[in-house]
Design brief:
about 270 residues; four-stranded antiparallel sheet
């Protein structure tokens, strides 16, 4: 039998009932946690011990995600040492106070010092720290063009499009299906704005995870035989501010954040 190398491989072997008994909003979210080593397969109550063990023997161990992200953060912090924060204010759409750069992310202020240390009133996890430091290091200061583009059409996206669709768009569509108030919560918690008429979607919300990197979430509810769908769009200039890998991390990181909030609030 072939080895398991990705969340979708595990997902195919799960009951796919999205019962949430494992603590995750969907079987795919649970599969993602398993492949990262964050949750054992035995946490799925619908799998017998024997079935779980059979799957475990096929799982190919992936690199330590936390270690990879930690190394990436340290690399970005090293590049921060050569940046004049005070003169970067205009380029980044930020403020400079008490020797620190203040960047508005998802409706909240994040402070960054010259060594790349990030602080905020809310939890600063790597899913946001990495894009934030990458933004400071790489941004050209280009203003948004106002042209919405799907991730797969951004320069350099290459083969990442299908994976982005599974990890971000499909996962968030399922979350929206089961949490009718999701987008209202996003607007309230993260300073989102409704966008009227965007792609004729039932709901469209714009967020600013970074000052010059807006993101549009468009959701179409199920209608008769038509299943629900969700698409995530970036401004065409996103790659002027972040490497494509960081754009990917930004999109998937926000979805993971929304999943955790949904779990917390039911």
């Amino acid at each position: 039998m072939s080895s398991i190398k990705s969340p979708i491989d595990i997902y195919r072997k799960l009951p796919q009932t999205n019962c949430r008994s494992c603590g995750f909003p969907s079987c795919f979210a649970f599969a993602t946690a398993v492949i990262k080593g964050e949750r054992p397969l035995t946490a799925c109550p619908q799998l017998s011990t024997e079935e779980a063990q059979q799957i475990v023997t096929l799982v190919k161990t992936l690199p330590d995600i936390d270690k990879v992200r930690s190394e990436l953060v340290e690399g970005l912090r090293a590049k921060m040492l050569g940046i004049d924060l005070a003169s970067s204010v205009g380029r980044l759409g930020a403020r400079f106070e008490s020797g620190k750069l203040i960047v508005r992310c998802l409706g909240r202020d994040f402070s960054v010092d010259a060594a790349g240390n990030v602080a905020s009133e809310c939890h600063t996890h790597s899913g946001l720290v990495i894009p934030l430091l990458g933004y400071i290091v790489h941004s050209t200061g280009t203003n948004p063009a106002g042209t919405w583009t799907p991730f797969r059409e951004l320069p350099g996206a290459d083969q990442r499009g299908p994976l982005f669709n599974k990890r971000a768009e499909q996962a968030l569509a399922k979350l929206a299906d089961s949490h009718p108030a999701l987008f209202e919560d996003i607007i309230t918690l993260f300073g989102g704005e409704r966008s009227t008429g965007a792609f004729d979607a039932d709901v469209s919300v714009v967020l600013y995870p970074l000052p010059k990197v807006p993101v549009l979430f468009s959701y179409w509810q199920s209608d008769g035989d038509m299943e629900s769908a969700l698409k995530i769009f970036f401004d065409l200039t996103a790659v002027n501010h972040l490497p494509i890998e960081s754009v990917f991390e930004l999109g998937t990181g926000m979805v993971m954040m929304f999943e955790k909030i949904a779990q917390k609030h039911g």
